[in-house]
From TrEMBL, chain A:
Residues 1-17 form the signal peptide. InterPro entries: EF-hand-dom_pair, EF_Hand_1_Ca_BS, Gtb1-like, Man6P_isomerase_rcpt-bd_dom_sf, PRKCSH, PRKCSH_N. Residues 335-344 have a biased composition (Basic and acidic residues). This is Glucosidase 2 subunit beta. Residues 286-344 are annotated as: Disordered. The keyword Metal-binding applies. Residues 311-334 have a biased composition (Acidic residues).
TrEMBL record, chain B:
Its EC number is 3.2.1.207. GO terms for molecular function: carbohydrate binding; Glc2Man9GlcNAc2 oligosaccharide glucosidase activity; glucan 1,3-alpha-glucosidase activity. Pfam families: Gal_mutarotas_2, Glyco_hydro_31_2nd, Glyco_hydro_31_3rd. Residues 183-218 are annotated as: Disordered. Residues 380-706 form the Glycoside hydrolase family 31 TIM barrel domain. Pathway: Glycan metabolism; N-glycan metabolism. It is found in: Endoplasmic reticulum; Golgi apparatus. GO terms for cellular component: glucosidase II complex; Golgi apparatus. It comes from Cyprinus carpio (Common carp). It comes from the Eukaryota. Residues 84-317 form the Glycoside hydrolase family 31 N-terminal domain. This is Neutral alpha-glucosidase AB. Keywords: Endoplasmic reticulum, Glycoprotein, Glycosidase, Golgi apparatus, Hydrolase, Signal. It is an enzyme of class 3 (hydrolase).
């Protein structure tokens, strides 16, 4: 009869190649062995009652907390411990004992169901070790990359802060000088023409110096922006992305044209960029200003009408029709860019105001977009465009830098506004690895970046660390 | 699933968008006909009660052993009808009326009756010029045929039980030639109006004007942009029934309305016409997805049924002589001894076919159920797993999604049995295929579920994408199996895939072919744990009149008009047959359908269609399923959570609590709603939902046994209270609580923010035990029950024994060998009885090999005994009895188990506060003979 089964079972575990035999009731972890003393009355672990020992694992639930039946499915709230030698030990709800489904890799949960389970612990252990090893490698390398990112961000931040300070300082000095001049002017009761001219000249020189200073700042700024891959060089292709630089204004910026702008060089570093800058500065659009202020939704998918074709072509991929909607929208910005001295400063300040993580390790994503093509859509993620750090539900103290949320996107056809949750995981590369739409117009993206890689705790991960004897 | 379709259709048809876009959440009534907009209904309803023009020609009476025939004549137009009367075994009378010599045959509905109903001899008791009196057998019942005007009365002793044509509303529009054709043919003058029209003189007076006017609806009819050509002209039929002494009538689903049918004076009649109604409205007589033309009439003395076997568009008018009376007026009648008896009058109107009525004379409710079951069959016996919990959504996006939802149930330790895939799973809505990107490895997915002992349902709708690259379409085309339009070409309409054809399921060859498509080698990627959902089988045609098929479309020689309401039944029939065949006839099928007709109960489950996440929709799920249960369809449920819109967390939890105690338990949600798997609403709500789903699983042995009973006897599983308390008038209108079997009373909480409900506990002799606290309450009282969000008021009847499997598992299949706990609830006389039914849970072996255990459990004289109800049955179970709870017991000094001639003591505990005796681990096999003695 089913109810009459082995009360005790022999559990074999392997440690350092020596078989050790330990007796304890089925399903009891070693840590709780002392509560189950053979032959002595058993007190439910919640202390609610004491029962004869032969009622432990007798397939009838006596304890409210389920502690008398760790090895049977009799209690609704019990838990069963499998040793899983070769893999890692685990607890399963005791309702999974003898239900015909193999849950423990050591097969110990199915001792009386007729289910044919194979011991897969060794295989699982091996696979897990491989995965862990791989993960460790990724983490290690990712963490190194992260340090670089932090370093770069630090430098960039200092530079920018310095720039802002300089600009503020310059402005202040300028204002002071103007003030001083005015004072001098007013002080002079009888204007002397010569003196006036001298003063004026000095004033002009002062202004020219300031203008040059600002131009240099803009140039440095532009270089950083143009250098998409942050390799310290601006390449032809990097420059080519700025269609507004087209010398013949025919709408396309060809490679030859770019090479012309770059004086024939394939790439330029900061020092040689100066000559290029002279060629392009009148036309160049800062990406910072291009992103301001009205942008389309950060995550772009074709509108619904296309997404749900009523008749045909449902499995065909859709054209990449919405990648650069921004391009024609910034006519207004063009004019004031060069005029407005404050604009650059404001943008830098804005950038500096973002939360780029505890060590600013996410700085490099600023103004970047990452794409993933699926059979149906192209998804594009532009962090810090509208992203806010989010928190996963029910885990308030979770590291907040692991989730980004985009809310209040464009409205869906008869649906909510689009929103996206981005989950960040450690990886060597910065890429969108998957997207899904669990609910209508609510997207979920998986995104890897070195910026979330944690310092490897232990260089030699050991899955056997907690293995029981 | 109608909404999005229409909107997506909007891309293709601007007109549609403007029609279907509505800012308010409600049905667009303009899309569906009122009686006034349905020419035959308007015509028929214009006839008022009065002297019938029909006369029985007694000299034509012929009586064979069990069949009486008699001609009727309409004195207005001299058309002869043939009346056939049969006395059927089991206290039923069948009345058939057809034209004596129709121009061509009129449609008689096949495939609904399970066999030609066996008859019993009729005998003539007396006969004179005024009529004939026939004996209806032993029970002092007579059938009186009055000649002038024609009328039928069924009497028992001095009481009239039911009369036909007592109000003179029999009207039979005979087939005729079109006026033009006819003028050429014979030039004879035939009055072109309803045959039953009494007002002959008036009719003659303005004959020209009237016939001109009536021409409109007679030979052609236009609704919105759709024209119905009517090559056969007017063909409608009508008959009235009077029910003296009856104030309560029920049935004729499907309507989103109260259990007790309302009078239809001043409004539209109840309409029976299977329609895909987008965002249906509650509490009105509009037609919905299914039609079962069966009405029950009930009073304290008797329950009767009227089964109107007609598959055409049908309208049912109900009036009552007490309907207008106030309670005070009724009381006055009672005090003054008013001679006026309450009476309900019913009138059936159908667009075509013949009159074929079955009068089921009861007299007990259970007898009416078995009578109807003897005609149309019983509820199919479902696989046990299909009584578990079903997780559905439009749509689970891909294999990964299915896997993660499946894992979600395990992570949160919630049992479920079936996960469902809606239309997006198929490749371009080509049913029987899989989207190659989202579901590239269906077998791998199904195997994954099988490893967890779980199952899947995929949708297979009856509209077939017109696409020369689609095997199903090509085969149907080459076999010429599509429904034809009036011109004989394949009928095409718009549905999910765009342009679609509709297979002619009325053809047996078509159904056989369709069934063969479910074979594992035909339906690629299918496995034995894949089952089927037939949606949109009204049939739904997005661009058709009233979102369905044109009435002049052709099914062979019959018009769609004739067969409309049975189309959906055939789809489910063929699908269920396919599932049976794929297993070589061994495995029971599971098929869910949205459209249905009388007899659909034989093929699977139904649900109440596209409801909404609103409290009123939760409430209406109860009367909707109760009404279906009364007319044979026990396996009924509503989308838990509501299909359209997002439910509040409270509504969702309450809906789970209600749905867990309804026969078909499936959560479903529209594509546009946010995800709502049970664990997405915080740990407290997850716990509440987990708890109620577990309660459902614990009661599976009881549900299963009730379905076995329904399958064997026709007794509904989910019942109105009056079925078990037929003399208690307080129960007659209750539809916010219900019984499961006879032994569980459920009063779900369906009010937002509720702090308490008042449940009526029926039965002056009864006691009821709260199943959660075991507190005992007396019957025949209104009991106020304070509730919290975790409360589900459920009571077990004193005098019953309910077997449960209290162990928690991941699915019903995992519970197969688990032990039982018997809940013995004692009556005031310290008595209780119940049953236990066990079989393999999925095959036909219970039927073909008698492989089942059926035991009677009786508690009497302080002894609980299990005895065999089927000694020649043969089934072994490893389940055993782990615990017995006796509610309302007194403390024994000793408990002994008597089995195999031995007596062994059994440990027990007694809870004095609630008088609950718990027997610890008696341990006998569930299939054994045993007695537990309390001393």
């Amino acid at each position: 009869m089913t109810c009459l089964h082995l009360l005790l079972t022999l559990v074999f575990a392997v440690s350092l190649g020596t078989p050790v035999e330990i007796q304890r009731p089925r399903g009891v972890p070693l840590t709780k062995k002392q509560f189950y003393e053979e032959g002595k009355p058993f007190t439910c672990l919640d202390g609610s009652r004491t029962i004869p020992f032969d009622r432990v694992n007798d397939d009838y639930c006596d304890c409210k907390d389920g502690s008398d039946e760790p090895g049977t499915a009799a209690c609704p709230n019990g838990s069963f411990h499998c040793t899983n030698a070769g893999y890692r030990p685990m607890f399963i709800p005791s309702s999974r004992i003898n239900d015909g489904i193999c849950d423990c890799c050591d097969t110990t949960d199915e001792y009386n169901s007729g289910a044919k389970c194979e011991n897969t612990c060794k295989e699982l252990g091996r696979k897990e070790r491989e995965v862990l090893q791989k993960m460790a490698e990724i983490t290690k390398e990712g963490f190194l990359l992260k340090q670089q990112l932090i370093e770069e961000a630090k430098k960039g931040r200092e530079e920018k802060q310095g720039k802002v300070t300089d600009m503020q300082e310059n402005k202040k000095q300028l204002e002071e000088k103007v003030e001083a001049l005015r004072t001098v002017k007013e002080a002079a009761e009888q204007p002397e023409k010569e003196a006036k001219e001298r003063h004026l000249k000095a004033w002009e020189e002062q202004k020219a110096a300031i203008r040059l200073e600002k131009d240099k700042a803009k140039m440095a700024e532009a270089f950083l922006e143009l250098d998409d891959n942050s390799d310290g060089f601006v390449s032809v292709s990097e420059l080519q992305s700025h269609a507004e630089l087209d010398p013949d204004a025919d709408g396309t910026l060809t490679e030859t044209e770019v090479q012309g702008l770059m004086g024939g060089a394939a790439q330029v570093d900061t020092s040689t960029f100066e000559s290029v800058w002279t060629n392009i500065k009148d036309k160049y659009h800062s990406e910072v200003s291009r992103k301001e202020p009205e942008e389309p939704a950060p995550v772009e998918t074709p509108p619904d009408e296309v997404k749900e074709p009523a008749v045909d072509n449902d499995s065909e991929p859709y054209p990449e029709d919405d990648i650069s909607e921004e391009d024609d929208e910034d006519e207004d910005d063009k004019d004031d860019y060069h005029e407005d001295d404050d604009k650059v400063r404001v943008n830098i300040e804005k950038e500096l105001s973002f939360d780029f993580g505890p060590d600013a390790e996410f700085t490099y994503m600023y103004s970047q977009c990452y794409e993933l093509s699926t059979s149906e859509y192209i998804y594009r993620l532009c962090p810090f465009n509208r992203a806010l750090w989010g928190r996963e539900k029910n885990r308030p103290e979770n590291n907040k830098y692991l989730v980004m949320k985009y809310e209040h996107g464009t409205g869906c056809w008869q649906g909510p506004n689009r929103s996206t949750t981005v989950k960040l995981t450690c990886g060597k590369e910065t890429v969108v690895t998957s997207t899904s739409e669990p609910s209508r117009c609510e997207y979920l993206m998986e995104f890897t970046t070195p910026a979330v890689c944690q310092e490897p705790a232990n260089t030699e991960p050991s899955p056997h660390g907690h293995e029981e004897l | 699933m109608a909404v999005i379709s229409i909107e997506r259709m909007g891309l293709l048809s601007v007109v549609c968008v403007s029609l279907f876009f509505s800012s308010t959440f409600a049905v667009d009534r303009g899309n569906f006909k009122t009686c006034d907009q349905s020419a035959f209904c308007k015509r028929q309803r214009a006839l008022k009660p009065g002297q019938s023009p029909y006369r029985a020609l007694l000299e034509t009476l012929e009586l064979s052993d069990s069949r009486l025939t008699l001609q009727l004549i309409n004195d207005n137009n001299k058309v002869h009808l043939l009346l056939e009367l049969y006395r059927l075994q089991g206290n039923m009378t069948r009345v058939k009326i057809n034209e004596l010599k129709p121009l061509k045959p009129r449609f008689e509905v096949p495939d609904v009756l399970i066999a030609e109903p066996p008859t019993e001899p009729l005998s003539v008791l007396s006969k004179d010029d005024n009529g004939v009196v026939l004996s209806l057998g032993a029970e002092n019942q007579r059938l009186i045929v009055s000649a002038r005007p024609f009328r039928l009365d069924i009497m028992e002793g001095p009481e009239v039980l039911l009369s036909l044509n007592s109000r003179g509303l029999l009207a039979f529009e005979h087939l005729r030639l079109h006026k033009d054709t006819q003028a050429q043919a014979d030039g004879a003058e035939v009055k072109e109006s309803v045959d039953g029209d009494q007002q002959q003189d008036e009719g003659k007076k303005d004959e020209d004007g009237e016939s001109e006017k009536e021409e409109d609806g007679l030979w052609e009819e236009t609704f919105k942009s759709h024209t119905d050509t009517k090559p056969n002209g007017p063909t409608s039929i009508s008959l009235d029934f009077s029910l003296p002494g009856v104030e309560h009538v029920y049935g004729i689903p499907e309507h989103a309305d109260d259990l007790k049918l309302k009078t239809t004076d001043g409004g539209d009649p109840y309409r029976l016409y299977n329609l895909d109604v987008f965002q249906y409205e509650l509490y009105n007589p509009m037609a919905l997805y299914g039609s079962i033309p069966v009405m029950l009439a009930h009073n304290t003395q008797r329950t009767m049924g009227i089964f109107w076997l007609n598959a055409a568009e049908t309208w049912v008018d109900i009036s009552s002589n007490t309907a207008g009376k106030t309670v005070f007026g009724k009381m006055l009648d009672f005090v003054q001894g008013s001679s006026e008896k309450p009476q309900t009058d019913v009138r059936w109107i159908s667009e075509s076919g013949i009159i074929d009525v079955f009068i089921m004379l009861g007299p007990k409710p259970s007898k009416v159920f078995s009578q109807y079951a003897s005609l149309t069959g019983t509820q199919s016996f479902p696989p046990l797993a299909s009584l578990g919990y079903h997780q559905c959504r439009w749509n689970y996006n891909d294999q990964e999604d299915v896997k993660s939802v499946d894992q979600g149930f395990d992570q949160h330790d919630i049992p479920y049995d079936f996960i469902w895939l809606d239309i997006e799973h198929a490749d371009g809505k080509r049913y029987f295929t899989w989207d190659p990107h989202k579901f590239p490895q269906p077998k791998e997915m199904l195997q994954g579920l099988m490893d967890k002992r779980r199952k899947m349902v995929s949708i297979v709708d009856p509209h077939i994408r017109v696409d020369s690259g689609y095997k199903i379409h090509n085969e149907i085309t080459s076999k010429d199996f599509y429904v034809k339009n009036k011109d004989g070409k394949n009928y095409e309409g718009w549905c999910w895939p765009g342009n679609s054809g509709y297979p002619d399921f009325t053809k047996p060859e078509m159904r056989a072919w369709w069934a063969s498509m479910f074979a594992y080698d035909q339906y690629e990627g299918s496995m034995e744990n894949l089952f089927t959902w037939n949606d949109m089988n009204e049939p739904s045609v997005f661009n058709g009149p009233e979102v369905t098929m044109h009435k002049d479309a052709l099914h062979g020689k019959w018009e769609h008009r004739d067969i409309h309401n049975i189309y959906g039944l055939y789809v489910q029939m063929a699908t269920a047959e396919g599932q049976i065949q794929r297993s070589g006839g061994v495995e029971r099928p599971f098929v869910l359908t949205r459209a249905f007709f009388a007899g659909s109960q034989r093929y699977g489950a139904v649900w109440t269609g596209d409801n909404a996440a609103e409290w009123d929709h939760l409430k209406i799920s109860i009367p909707m399923c109760l009404s279906l249960g009364l007319v044979g369809v026990s396996f009924c449920g509503a989308d838990v959570g509501g299909f359209f819109k997002n439910p509040s967390t409270e509504l969702l939890v309450r809906w789970y609590q209600t749905g867990a105690y309804q026969p078909f338990f499936r959560a479903h949600a529209h594509l546009d709603t946010t995800r709502r798997e049970p664990w997405l609403f915080g740990p407290e709500n997850t716990a509440l939902i987990r708890e109620v789903i577990r309660q459902r699983y614990a009661l599976l042995p009881y549900w299963y046994q009730l379905f076995y009973q329904a399958h064997k006897t026709g007794m509904p599983v989910m019942r109105p209270l009056w079925v078990d308390y037929p003399k208690d008038t307080a129960t007659f209108t209750i539809d916010d609580e219900f019984l499961i079997g006879s032994d569980l009373l459920v009063h779900p909480v369906t009010e937002e923010g509720s702090r308490g409900v008042t449940a009526y506990l029926p039965g002056a002799e009864e006691v009821w035990y709260d199943v959660h606290t075991f507190q005992k309450h007396n019957g025949a009282q209104n009991l106020y029950i304070p509730v919290t969000l975790s409360s589900i008021p459920v009571f077990q009847r004193g005098g019953s024994i309910i077997p449960r499997k209290d162990r928690v598992r991941r699915s019903s299949t995992c519970m197969e060998n688990d032990p039982y706990t018997l809940y013995v609830a004692l009556s005031p006389k310290k008595f209780a009885e119940g049953e236990l039914y066990i079989d393999d849970g999925h095959s036909f072996n219970y039927d073909t090999k008698k492989e089942f255990i059926h035991r009677s459990l009786t508690f009497a004289n302080n002894a609980l005994t299990s005895s065999n109800l089927c000694p020649d049955c043969n089934f072994l179970t490893s389940s055993w009895i782990e615990k017995v709870l006796i509610l309302g017991a007194s403390k024994p000094s000793k408990v002994l188990l008597k089995m195999d001639g031995k007596e062994t003591p059994v440990d027990f505990e007694f809870d004095t506060s609630m008088s609950v005796l718990t027997l610890r681990k008696p341990g006998m096999n569930a299939g054994a003979d045993w007695t537990l003695l309390l001393q």
